[in-house]
């Protein structure tokens, strides 16, 4: 099944949504959030075995209205359900 994932990483904290529904959030603590890896779980080397159809990135956080616009676009494009953040 296809899904949309929305992630906000700002260096100090992170938030994750699955199809518009909040899944997790937290502070970086002693771990710096200075980048992301797509398709592998570093440094443990667990490769992603699924398909990734589209990745959209923005420099800086988006307001919720813009996140919802992107989520609805992806849901429309791929025939998914989406709940506004």
The largest sheet, given as strand count, sense and whether it forms a barrel, is:
3 strands, antiparallel
Strand arrangement in the largest pleated sheet: 1-2-3
Strand percent estimate? 25-35%
Number of domains: 1
Which oligomeric form is depicted? single chain
Structural class of the secondary structure composition? alpha+beta
Order of helices and strands: EEEEEH
Please, what is the average pLDDT?
81
Helix share bin: 10-25%
Radius of gyration over C-alpha positions, nearest whole angstrom: 14 Å
Distance between the ends: 21 Å
DSSP strand tally? 5
The best one-word shape is: globular
Number of helices: 1
Q: List unreliable stretches of 5+ residues.
A: none
What does this structure look like?
- The protein is an alpha+beta fold and 85 residues long.
- It has one domain (5-78).
- The protein contains 1 helix and 5 strands; from the N terminus they run E-E-E-E-E-H.
- It has a 3-stranded antiparallel β-sheet, with no helix packed on it.
- It is globular and about 40 Å long.
Q: Main attributes?
A:
85 residues, globular, two-stranded antiparallel ribbon, three-stranded antiparallel sheet
Secondary-structure map with pairings?
Layout: E1 5-9, E2 13-18, E3 21-27, E4 40-41, E5 46-47, H1 64-78
Antiparallel strand pairs: 1-2, 2-3, 4-5
Summarize the structure.
This protein is an alpha+beta fold and 85 residues long.
């Amino acid at each position: 099944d296809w899904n949309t994932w929305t992630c906000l990483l700002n260096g100090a904290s992170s938030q994750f949504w699955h199809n518009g529904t909040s899944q997790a959030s937290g502070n970086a603590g002693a771990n710096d959030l200075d980048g992301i890896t797509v398709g592998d779980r570093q440094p443990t080397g667990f490769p992603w075995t699924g398909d990734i159809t589209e990745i959209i990135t923005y420099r800086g956080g988006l307001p919720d209205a813009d996140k919802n616009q992107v989520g609805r676009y992806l849901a429309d494009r791929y025939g998914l359900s989406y709940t506004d953040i």
